[in-house]
Design brief:
362 residues; alpha/beta; Rossmann fold; 3-stranded antiparallel sheet; 9% strand; Pept_C14_p10; CASP7-like protein; Pept_C14_caspase; Caspase_cys_AS
Length: 362
């Protein structure tokens, strides 16, 4: 096994372990409070631990101080034991052993994993970039984990890809298109979501080899003429990347109550012929910022855009469709402010012809 394959598989095991623990410990329960209490004394400032709302946030803090990481579970075992959660130990030991087997085959060490991640790209039904363990980019770790957690909760098939060169990224897109165009997928896949997190500029998104790919190029890879068996089904892209070097200013406005006016069209055309759709139909791209401007990502809490997306999705996915939720995302991100009153404005390009709900089916 080569180094890259080892890193990928070990990171997936590590992320799955954290997801498992998060799902097994009910938030607010006595066991939850005991587990959080056990985290104290491991070098994490108490104020930060208290402010970290979810177990994922708290795991990030432990990773920042070197008390948790891929194949680094001694402290986690102690916390589990001291909080009376011994039933979690078999899963921890199983994950640790699997990582050791991978490391033995590859000849690598876990230290490599902490140094290799620089760019994140992803593709698939809800394909999300793999979590980084590097302390200099823990905001990406947060984004990755909350995206994976949400889409798994709503029954998406989640896949991960990291550190892709331009050629590797294009090959991954080709593989995904083949999967979406498969006749089996036609009846079994409802929609496709791709989250991409990387550096970027006005020309597009940076790949691991320093090359660029534009958002328009990505969109055109997934038009209906390339995947006819998936025509008419939603294709969604969430892109967390700078689109320039400027910081956006803000202006004070009156908080007017503006009502939406919806035009009604009573014309109905009934026809029995086969329905066709335009090649560009049923795609949505949600950008973290408007053209020319930077996107903000915090070291611990993650990026403004991705964390707000997941926050809003969790709150409203049972009642609201995606485009309505993204209006709320834009509103909430627009209210945030960094130093010197600098702002960020997400935006959306869409050709969706249906309302897309993430609500789980019964």
């Amino acid at each position: 096994m080569d180094e890259k394959a080892y890193i990928e598989k070990a990171r997936i095991l590590h992320t799955n372990l954290k997801t498992y623990i998060k799902d097994e410990i009910e938030t607010g329960s006595d066991q939850y409070h005991a587990f959080v209490e056990s985290m104290k004394g491991y070098g994490v400032p108490k104020g930060r631990l208290a402010n970290a709302k979810s177990l994922y946030d708290k795991f990030v803090l432990l990773e920042n101080v070197g008390k948790l990481g891929v194949g680094n579970y001694d402290s986690l075992r102690q916390m589990v034991k001291s909080s009376g959660l011994d039933e979690l130990l078999p899963k921890i030991n199983e994950t640790d052993n699997e990582i050791k087997k991978l490391r033995a085959v590859s000849g690598e060490s876990t230290g490599h994993i902490a140094r290799k991640r620089q760019h994140d790209h992803s593709t698939g039904d809800a394909r999300l970039p793999e979590a980084k363990q590097s302390r200099v980019d823990t905001g990406s770790t947060r984004d990755v984990e909350i995206l994976q957690s949400f889409f798994r909760e709503v029954d998406f098939e989640v896949d991960v890809a990291s550190d892709l060169t331009l050629r590797e990224l294009e090959q991954r897109f080709t593989d995904v298109k083949q999967r979406l165009n498969d006749t089996i997928a036609k009846d079994n896949l409802y929609c496709f979501v791709c989250a991409i997190m990387s550096h970027g500029n006005k020309d597009g998104i940076a790949t691991a080899d320093g090359k660029m790919i534009s958002e328009e190029t990505i969109r055109k890879r997934f038009t209906n003429n390339y995947i006819p068996n998936f025509a008419g089904k939603p294709k969604v892209f969430l892109i967390q990347a700078c689109r320039g070097t400027d910081l956006q200013d803000g202006e004070q406005v009156e908080d007017d109550d503006i009502s939406d006016v919806t035009a009604k069209n009573n014309d109905v055309i009934e026809d029995d012929i086969i329905v066709t759709v335009p090649n560009d139909a049923d795609t949505l791209i949600a950008f973290s910022s408007t053209p020319g401007y930077k996107s903000t990502r915090m070291t611990v809490s993650g990026s403004w855009f991705i964390t707000t997306c997941v926050e809003v999705f969790r709150q409203f996915y049972k009642t609201d469709h995606l485009e309505d939720m993204l209006v709320t995302v834009r509103e909430r991100v627009a209210q945030k402010e960094r130093e010197h009153s600098k702002k960020q404005m997400p935006c959306v390009w869409t050709s969706l012809t249906k309302r897309l709900f993430f609500k789980k089916t019964s």
